[in-house]
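Researcher: Go.
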Amino acid sequence: MKKTILTAVLALLCTASFACTNLIIGKKASVDGSVFCTYNCDGFGFAASLSYSPAGAHAPGERLAFPVRGNNGEVSYRYIPQVSYTYGVVGLMNDHQVSIVETTWDGRTELVDRNGLFDYFTLMDITLQRSATAREAIKVIDGLVQTYGYNSTGESFAICDKEEAWIFEIIGKGPDNTGAVWVARRVPDDCISAYANSSRIRQFPQSKKIDKNLGFYVSDNGNTMYSAECISFAREKGYFTGKDDADFSFREAYGPIDFSTVRYCDARVWSFFRHHYDKDVMDSYLPYINGQFDVCDELPLWIKPDAPLSERDVMNDMRDHYEGTALDMTVDVSAGPWASPYRNQPVNFYSSDSTAMFRERPIGCQQSGMTMVCRMRSWLPDAVGGITYFNMDDATMVAYVPVYCGITRTPEPFRPENTNIREFSTESAFWMNNWVANMIYPRWSAMIGDLRDAQKELEDFYQEDQKEVEARVAQMEAVDIVAFLTRKTETYTDMMMKRWDKLAKLLIVKHNDQIMQPSENGELVAGRRTSPAYSPVFIDAVKAQTGSRYVKP
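Model: Structure:
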């Protein structure tokens, strides 16, 4: 009997992605009808390569094998029946333009079932191989977890295709209780949504009868779905005791909030919304962000933006550090002499007098292993219509490279064999990006402009080049399209690697010994060297702490 071994290169994220962010944009909320979902996959000390699994037919009786590592390192396997055909998957988008991205919110940890077969990332990978639409993906997920069990903590997925965007939240049912409870809501086409490590779905439209064909509830004209035991299980466990099912809140039952949940997680959502909605209205939610739940206890699940979003808007939203808001990380003394939005200390720490303190957790953060913006377009052939703008490391510090969903191999700089977390390599996108980023982090305001110039140069080119790519694809035979897009993706990646090599070498020469040489278009030019100034806030803080020591007589 033939067996297929599951090889998910990104499966390592199952232990690393605990601070992720997903943004969601409906097709009527984008400038051209694209559906978007995004993913910053955060966690210190790991690199997330770009995975690929080819499409293919499977023989009757074939099984899919899952490696399971025991306490002593030994590996055993568990099996499920393989389906007759699986779709190709590049990263987290399949060749039908279905994308699934995630964030973890833990929730009630007593509901983790370590005997369940599927962790969240394996679940995503298998579902993408078996789903041609977002709605089919929801059905596949329910069938897999109810049959084989779910072993992760609380999780939110954005499940999107070229027509629809869904928010899907799931949590297990505890040890020796196979299955999971979940709820899914379709984001209105003219709206945007987001989540970042907290449950966001509260009350939702309900149905009186389970859909017999699906085995779960469908309500709200098909725009809300939820598992058969979603509410009854919460009653059974004592998480919900209301008399009216209309009062049931998924968040309160399975992922209740506290100050940390909101400030470290929902603040990211608030800042994203604030970019695209009336700022005064969004600032009225600051009591919630500050933990004043008696004043305000939620953000909107979605909003209708003031203007449609472009792919560049979405990319820049993934680089947010609360700039210009009450949470701006660059405007106080903790930003240091170079007004940095990055902080190295743990999220929670103590002052010398034992005062409990915290740092902000923005969308853009140095510990990202990879970042992606998934774009689905219904009016183009799938192979070119689905693009994952991808790179490895911090979204703020990279250029997003277009990766088409119809390719048949991933570019070498994004492959795991070229990414050893313990050994620097100029062949690795992860290490080239980190080389640049780790020069800039300590001297942010002096150096970030050079990176932004290179970033804009590449992303401007990629954006403009799409017109030619789409025009050429329209004239090609189907058999030639995939090879063309594979080569184009590799060319884009090679451009990025060469530009980042040039940037790294410019930074170390231009800013040598903390003196800045003039440059234009990424090249050094003749001119007077300057000493970049410290942040005024930092200078004032030094004066306040040192008194007259540095004051000229």
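Model: The chain has 13 helices and 26 strands.
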